[in-house]
Predict the structure.
Amino acid sequence: MLRLLEMTYADLTEVFAERFGKGPFLAGALYREFYKQLNPQAWQAAAIARSPGLPARLRQALAFEPGDVVDDVQQEGVVKFVTALKDGHCIESVFLPMESHGTICVSSQAGCRMGCRFCETARLGLVRQLSVEEIVGQVYDARRRFGTRVRNVVFMGMGEPFDNFDAVIAAVRVLSDQRGLDIAQRYITISTAGRIDGIEKLAGLDMPHLKLAVSLNAPNDDLRSQLMPINRTAPLDRLQRALMAYPLKKGYAIMIGYVLMPGVNDGVACARQLARWLIPLSAKVNLIPFNPGTASPYPTPTEEELDTFRQRLIDLGVNVQKRAPRGRDLMAACGQLGNAATMV
């Protein structure tokens, strides 16, 4: 079966020649119908219809199984989608409207094995990896609903992207194909809990425009190991060295996610330790309020607590931005995806 959601234009032209004996003109017509017209029944393209027998052959050959959107909830423009996959498992993705564009937060796994204590998805454990089709399909569905307004893609939904490295990178190549969805890699961010081997593999792929984010959340090994089990095998000194070696494009910064939990990681000592750890890095801290889940182990910070910690970092010379919570009431904010309703 041919799965266009897993194919770049170059992939398709090669297969078209080998399997159908057709050239790039017809391959391009099929690809445009699928990705520009957003028509899953791409064999209906006018140019394809004029080629005797080809529409019927393509109808038999093409597969389209990204899952079905079975539910969505929205508030103030934020939309959370629940997609039922063909095996019955479900994933969640979130559309976030901005002033001039929209961002889609996609999942790379059903569930997650990382076990971060502040994350709702961690409660599920890892159910399975998503295919390239299931990853790209989340963006495809968003484009069909919101059009070209969907410009940014962030791998910050369910799952650890570097645990599904090959599928995620293949999805990035499909998403950024100019003949397809044409989402430039400078508008795509991959966020990791700190998979050092994944950071090193990404560094070797010569994808300089792709953006990297790291979920840090604690400035010392004792605390980070409590919050994020990955730190026990990938401690902060090794993570720092990997980020120092990462080939950042000029003008780019690594985004450092820091989920603020009052009484846990918001003290003066934490601010100083974080500032010291960041010294050798070109980085920007994304300060995120802890968003409560179904069994929240931590309180949600007040605006005053967020502003106090942010000001401490600014006084220490740290480049920091405060993220306003969006979609919290929908269980659609950072760390909230993957509640019990997503499991079958």
Q: What stands out?
A: The chain has two domains: 2-63, 68-342. The first helix runs from residue 9 to 20. Confidence is low (pLDDT under 50) at residues 340-344.
